[in-house]
Design a protein that fits this description.
- The protein has 611 residues and is an alpha+beta fold.
- Among the domains are: 186 residues, FAD/NAD(P)-binding domain; 34 residues, no CATH class; 129 residues, Helicase, Ruva Protein, domain 3, CATH 1.10.8.870.
- Helices cover 40% and strands 18% of the residues.
- The protein has 21 helices and 20 strands.
- The strands form four sheets. Strands 1, 2, 9, 10, 11, 12, 19 and 20 form an eight-stranded mixed β-sheet that branches.
- Helix 2 packs across helix 12 and helix 5 runs parallel beside helix 10.
- The protein is globular.
């Protein structure tokens, strides 16, 4: 398969000449997942994204396939149950992306703590049951204060009671998006980035029938005809609905901003991900996560009303996170000058907290006694000893010990909603990256229902829980062994062990296709051979159209390999300019775009470096 600039023009020609079964607006994780399922099920599928794939929310997450243990304290049991089960599905269909990485949750003796040692253990036991890992090597366990400090010597010992350790997974969010997009394209879908919707089209009966779009690369405007239109634009969901003049769209989104900061692991070393209360009694928790040879921490989770296209890290965000991290790691003494890179992203939260499928029962914390009752009744239900309504009775009668207000954005559920407006426009919004496949499943099923009801077309949905994304054709039970074999194959072709391992973990079962480029391309001056073939693969097979696409989203070079970024920028730009035959103006434009992104990531405006 070729998924490149040439393929883009072919897909645009299809948009101009044919009627799609479904047009998906939005190329983040939910849209990508829906495109994969629709394309594999035989629907003539199109997807348009006004930026690069994953450029919005889906490349700006905490980069975990997170199980949501904290939601048990908020008592979103259904959220956690769906999430941990779905996480296992994602690991099965994209085994090269989510990687098990158990999380430490320290408990401190301080006011309004999210967990006591008792309630944490109860929550972890319930979590393990929901995740079906009880009795396995991934089962939770507790650590004494002394054991915690032995493992994490920099952690503040004052008030520390102990910790719990439970299963979680690290993730490469942007890679998960592009691998879904590539599989959809391979199955005949038409995936086009940098294509902005400017109008929702309607047929003679007033039903949504496509969109007028602007090609942001050429300035051309075209009409795309489709039998069904799906809105998967995350924070922009209200914008697209309000663009539809056949419906009275009431805003439902309440975006919040999340900020993450990256430092060298020599400054702050953690052996595994850590998750703790902020210590500010504000109802929030913060992650500190090792990645490559860096450590990153976040998130802020504050209401956001600014420019959705360009959320930025502000001084208040930095001050807030540094205050928390330095309090928890008092010997670190991290300052803004230690921050090597950063990112800010939006969470597409639903304002009413009333989304279907994932919201659970409430956002209130509950007492320890109620936790014990819940654990018992769920265990009995899983053993077939009680009925579902008996579980529901327990859920409805829990005792609240709420220390968080409903106006706090940190308490908003990450539930999703699926709505079909009166003109047939489908909007799927909210949710978490972990739940993307399940959200997409419901949306595509709604498309198929409309196609059968209104157009007499019949389709059978694929079993997407068993359908790998691109690069995912590995045995999920032996992914480490298969990745090691791919690494060895790269070493046999002349790559170093670290280069081959990097490529094998990045590309999964597509790694041999990347290695094949060793016989086709010459090493680019200023780049390693591994970076050379990675760049060419990104341009030829992953629709990398700009240097930012490659350095930020096809790889995480800007975020987690900041040390070597500056020396590869010029070689990358020069090779992309040569390959894509850019004009001088185009090259200058993309260079400026990348420089702006790097300056923002480096926090140059906040550091006073305006050169």
């Amino acid at each position: 398969m070729v998924f490149s600039l040439k393929r883009r023009q072919q897909d645009i020609n299809v948009f101009k000449e044919e009627t799609l079964d479904v047009l998906i607006i939005g190329g983040g994780i939910t849209g990508a997942g829906a495109a994969l399922q629709a394309s594999a099920s035989g629907l003539k599928t199109g997807l348009v994204e006004m930026q690069d794939f994953a450029e919005g929310t889906s490349s700006r997450s905490t980069k975990l396939v997170h199980g949501g243990l904290r939601y048990l304290k908020q008592f979103d049991v259904e959220v956690v149950a769906d999430t941990v089960q779905e996480r296992a599905v994602v690991q099965g269909i994209a085994p090269h992306i989510p990687k098990a990485d158990p999380m430490i949750l320290p408990v401190y003796d301080e006011p309004n703590a999210t967990f006591s040692m008792f309630s944490l253990k109860v929550a972890m036991d319930l979590y393990d049951q929901l995740a079906s890992v009880t009795g396995t090597t991934y089962a939770n366990y507790t650590l004494t204060k002394e054991e915690v400090l032995e493992r994490v010597p920099q952690l503040n010992s004052e008030g520390l009671l102990g910790a719990g350790v439970y299963l979680d997974y690290r993730n490469n969010d942007a890679r998960l998006v592009i691998e879904n997009i590539k599989r959809a394209a391979e199955d005949g879908g038409h995936m086009v980035s940098r294509m902005k919707v400017v109008k929702i089209l309607h047929d003679d009966e007033g039903k949504a029938s496509g969109a007028e779009v602007e090609d942001l690369l050429t300035g051309d405007t075209i009409r795309i005809n489709a039998r069904v239109v799906m809105n998967t634009t995350g924070p922009w969901s209200d914008t697209i609905r309000q663009m539809d003049d056949k419906i009275d769209a009431i805003p439902q989104m309440r975006p919040t901003k999340g900020v993450h900061l990256v430092v060298d692991n020599k400054k702050l070393f953690v052996p595994q991900p850590i998750y703790f209360d902020t210590g500010k009694q504000d109802g929030r928790m913060v992650f500190v996560i090792p990645r490559e040879e860096k450590t990153y921490f976040g998130t802020t989770d504050t209401d956001y009303k600014g420019d959705f296209l360009n959320p930025t890290v502000e001084q208040d965000d930095v001050d807030y996170l540094l205050d928390i991290v330095n309090a928890r790691y008092p010997s670190a003494h991290i300052t803004i000058d230690d921050i090597e890179s950063s990112w800010a992203g939006l969470r597409p939260l639903i304002a009413t907290n009333g989304g279907s499928d994932y919201n659970g029962q409430s956002t209130k914390q509950i007492t320890d006694d109620s936790f014990e009752s819940v654990l018992s009744i769920v265990e009995q239900y899983q053993q077939g000893k009680v009925e579902r309504y008996e579980v529901a009775d327990v859920l409805k009668n829990v005792e609240s010990a709420n220390s968080e207000t409903e106006t706090n954005p940190s308490t908003l559920s990450r539930g999703s909603s699926l709505e079909v407006d009166e003109d047939g426009l489908i909007t799927v919004a909210g949710g978490k990256i972990t739940d993307y496949r399940k959200m997409a499943l419901g949306a595509v099923q709604a498309v198929i229902d409309i196609l059968e009801k209104d157009f007499g077309q019949s389709y059978d949905l694929i079993d997407s829980a068993q359908y790998p994304v691109s690069g995912g054709d590995l045995d999920p039970h032996n992914v480490d062994e298969e990745t090691e074999a791919l690494t060895q194959a790269g070493m046999e072709k002349g790559l170093t062990e670290s280069e081959a391992a990097y490529l094998a973990n990045l590309y999964g079962s597509n790694t041999p296709a990347v290695y094949a480029l060793l016989d086709e391309v010459e090493q680019i001056k200023g780049l390693t051979m591994a970076d050379t073939i990675s760049l060419h693969y990104a341009m030829r097979e992953e629709m990398a159209l700009t240097p930012s696409d490659f350095l930020i989203r096809r790889t995480n070079h800007m975020l987690f390999m900041r040390d070597t970024l500056d020396i590869i920028i010029e070689p990358v730009i020069s090779e992309m300019a040569r390959y894509h035959d850019w004009s001088d103006d185009t090259r200058t434009h993309y260079t400026t775009e990348l420089e702006k992104a790097i300056a923002e990531s480096d926090l140059k405006p906040l550091k006073g470096d305006v050169s």
